[in-house]
Amino acid sequence: MALEKEQHKVLKWAFFSGLGTLFSRFAGLFREIVMAALFGTGMVADAFSAAFRFPNLLRRVFGEGGLLVVLVPRYSQERIEFDDDEAFVLASSVAVMLGVIVGLVIIIGELTAPYLAWIFAHGWLDQPEKFALTVRLLRLLYPFIGFIAFATWASAILNAHKKFFLPSLAPAFLNLGWLTGGLIALQLYRNSAPQIQAYIVAAGVLLGGLLQFCIQIPLMKKIGFEFKSDIKRKISGVVEIGKLLLPALVTLAVMEINFIVDVLLASFLPQGSVSALTYANRLIYLPMGLASVAMAQATLPKLSDLAAIADFKKFEKLLSFATKIIFGIMLPISAFVIALNSEIVGFLFQRGSFSGAVSTPMTAFALTFYAVGLFAFGSNKILMQGFYAIKDTKTPMILSAIVVMINIILNLLLIGPLKHGGLALATSLASIVHTTLLLIFLNRKNKLAIKPQIMSFLRVLVASVIILIITKLSSIGVHSFIGEISFWQRAIQLGLPSIIWFIAVIAIAKILKISEIEQFIELFIQKMKKSISK
After folding, report:
1. Does the pLDDT of residue 502 top 70, yes or no?
2. DSSP assignment letter at 234
3. Which residue of 45, 112, 233, 244 pairs with 275 in a disulfide if CB–CB is 3.0 to 4.6 A?
4. Is the pLDDT of residue 499 over 90?
5. How far apart are CA 18 and CA 298, in angstroms?
6. In the 8-state DSSP scheme, what is residue 122?
7. How many CB atoms lie within 10 A of CB 104?
8. In terms of C-beta density within 10 A (0-12 exposed, 13-18 middle, 19 or more buried), how is residue 527 classed?
9. How far apart are CA 257 and CA 143, in angstroms?
10. CA distance 511 to 523
């Protein structure tokens, strides 16, 4: 199926964005392997996971989910209506206001850390050592927000100039700093108390945040960016961004409450529940970054350009195309994760303090339920860009508030029978409801037809169920011949079914003519051929 010019451009941008994210996610994966070896699913792992939750919440609020999605459309409009110099003045003025706001947030966070910990780690009040460690780590990690806010500000400017690779690669430097801290703790402080090792890792996180911002500065200079703030002259643009940002911040804050509630409820469950959810959540974010985050970053600038010139016919076509591609990528990956959950966790994490008897099954259990909603996590990112591109941040805010209430109700219903797995399943089910609501309201605004999305989803779902069955049967066959003893045996147990899965994806996409899968595979092969020929 031939791609239209605009669709091919977006896929190409998504490919380069995904390539940068690939390095970042694999750096993050190695980081999690080191964290698992250091702390397993013990007390320190739980404390670090809980302490990082709140700075990470604000990272998403002030970062790629908040600032980026409102700055790119307004910055793009400034370039179209005036020129790059005027857009630079606007961006510089936004940076000054951002510095003031984030600085205040950090100061307040440092002062209120014990109260924040009381909210999201209430179940540890009867464990003074664990609670105190959480507070200390929270205070140490809080300045991370400032680095990430300015890193995202830089990424937004570069994305608006259709520069996607470096901004998507920049988070790899966060993971590199984090990984460096983990390796120093593992190698040079291996005999120190786990609490000391946790402080060293936290220092690595701060270093990584600073690197994520600094690595983008040379490319900003290359596109001609000059810092020349004039808030008085650009006050209308700054105020407009502020007005758009406030509902976007509320949207993300409301969505992140899901994670805070998960941590709060998991703190009442057996030890290891919080860290098992964290490891599983991080694994789910690997395919999210490679596909949906990359596609969202590539799509938003183009959607913003089309909205600025009121070409909503192409707008709808592009948004529909991006959503279908995400279905085509995410559903087969869900099949892979569900079929091979234990093999994935065992191969990646089962070493050191991460035990095969406790840590692996706990994490695999949560991973399975997160995988159920993977397509929804991915498509939500794309669908929300449709609202942000037309500068509608209020509708996503209202829908997110509804979804959070649904998620909390599902948490309370499912935590009893499924423990921490119920929290993961509740997140997935609530996210599926969120996808449905986003589609309905985009349709009401005449920005996206629902029927083509449903038909696309059902086609890929049928194919993915077949792929899941084939992959699971191949895994059972491999296990019947190879027992799980060594690392290499675990590698074979994961590797052989993975090859079968990949072949099944290509074959079934061809047999059933699933264009949503074929288009992505076609572009991937083209880019690989070009890379090899060079």
Report:
1. yes
2. T
3. 45
4. yes
5. 9
6. G
7. 10
8. middle
9. 21
10. 19
255 vs 397: CA distance, rounded Å: 9
Tokens 């572009």 map to which residue? 523
Name the nearest CA neighbour of 322 among 379, 371, 374, 377: 379
Using CA atoms, how far apart are residues 141 and 9, in angstroms rounded to an integer?
39
The H or E element containing residue 143 is none
Other beta carbons within 10 Å of 198:
24
Of residues 216, 153, 150, 159, the one with CA closest to residue 17: 159
How far is residue 506's CA from residue 409's CA, in Å, rounded to a whole number?
A: 39
Q: How far is CA 144 from CA 72, 204, 347, 370, in A?
A: 23, 10, 31, 27
Q: Is 420 within 8 Å of 370 (Cβ atoms)? A: no
Which of 122-126, 141-145, 173-177, 527-531 has the least mean pLDDT? 527-531
CA 397 to chain centre: 19
Which residues 6+ apart lie within 8 Å of 503 measured at CB? none
DSSP, collapsed to helix, strand or coil, labels residue 361 as: helix
- Contact predicate 509/327, CB 8 Å: no
Distance CA 25, CA 164 (A): 16
For 427, residues 6+ apart whose C-beta sits below 8 A from its C-beta are: 258, 262, 369, 370, 373, 407
**Residue 183 main-chain phi, psi, to 5 deg:** -70, -40
Query: What are the helix (H) ranges across 188-293?
Result: 194-214, 217-222, 235-266, 273-287
- The tokens describing 19, both together, are 């390539």
- Rounded Cα gap, residues 427 and 410, in angstroms: 8
Q: What's the pLDDT band for 349 if we cut at 50, 70, 90?
A: confident
Compute the distance between CA of residue 326 and CA of residue 324 in angstroms, rounded to an integer.
5
Residue 39 contacts residue 31 (beta carbons within 8 Å): no
- Rounded CA-CA distance 316/211 in Å is 37
Per-residue pLDDT tens for 190-224? 788 888 999 999 999 999 999 999 999 999 999 88
